[in-house]
Amino acid sequence: MSYLVVGLGNIGPEYAETRHNMGFMILDAWAHASNVAFETRRYGDLAVISMKGREIYLLKPSTYMNLSGNAVRYYLSKLPVTTERLLVICDDINLPFGTLRMRKSGSNGGHNGLGHIEEILGTRDYTRIRAGVGHDFADGSQIDYVLGKLSEEEKKLMPELCNKAIQGIKDWIFVGADRAMNVLNAKNG
């Protein structure tokens, strides 16, 4: 059994540690903890974790956020993975910083990366984890906020947030989406 876990973000050092790169940061933490490295491939950086007879492909698209669907479609066509075994991680300004929410399907909520994936795949039926980055910005400054660097306080919270997200993904793989959602979403209030 194979799974594709996509962390959304923007490539380049200027976007490192920005709120919009929560997906990249969570996958980087998992790869580091698993002692695997990302390799630059077509449409993104890919790492593979083998765990209990399953292959888990971690993908950080190199297409920029608004074109993430191109990378997802490509890897769904190349890997032995269906949309039922696809999970996408993204930032969410509608959740407080550090809150995680898993859903089996749903709207893109105005998130351009999810919107493009939905458009390209022609479905909303794939699992996603939204990582809350908060809503601490004035009207009209949303872009500056999500592309802004994490505060020192937020950086201190990242290891715990990454660990919770990684455990939620493992639960999704090994015990199923419903149980994983019950555990992950309950941990976040």
Strand runs, count: 7
Structural domains: how many: 1
Average the pLDDT over all residues and give the rounded result.
Answer: 93
Task: Return the CATH class.
Answer: Alpha Beta
Shape verdict: globular
| Structural class designation | alpha/beta
Q: Poorly predicted ranges (pLDDT <50, ≥5 residues)?
A: none
CATH superfamily (homologous) name: Peptidyl-tRNA hydrolase
As a percent range, the share of strand residues is 15-25%
Q: What is the architecture at the second tier of CATH?
A: 3-Layer(aba) Sandwich
Distance between the termini: 32 Å
CATH topology: Rossmann fold
Q: Give a short account of the largest sheet.
A: 7 strands, mixed
Descriptive tags:
Rossmann fold, 189 residues, single chain, 6 helices, alpha/beta, globular, 22% strand, seven-stranded mixed beta sheet, 7 strands
Describe the protein's architecture and organization:
- It is a single chain.
- Helix content is 39%, strand content 22%.
- By secondary structure, it is of the alpha/beta class.
- Strands 2-3-4-1-5-7-6 form a seven-stranded mixed β-sheet, with helices on both faces.
- Helix 1 crosses helix 5.
- The model has no long low-confidence stretch (mean pLDDT 93).
